Amino acid sequence: MEKGIIVAGSMIFDNLKKIDIYPGACNLTKIRKNEMAMGGLVNNCVQDFAHLDSELPLKVIGLMGDDAGGNFILNNLKKYPNIDLSGLKTSGETSFTDVMYDSERRTRAYFQFEGSNADLGIDDFDFDSIKGDIIHVGYLLLLNKLDEPNPVYGTNMGELLHKAQSYGIKTSIDVVSEESDRYQSVVAPALKYVDYCIINEMEAGKIVGIPSADEEGRIIEENMPRICKALRNLGVRDWIIVHARDASYGLDVDGTFIRMDCIDIPRSMIVGTTGAGDAFCTGALYGAYKGMSLKEAMYFATGVASTSLFSPSASESVTDVAGVYKLMSEYPVPDCMTYKI
Question: What are 292-313's pLDDT values in tens digits?
Answer without folding.
Answer: 999 999 999 999 999 888 676 6
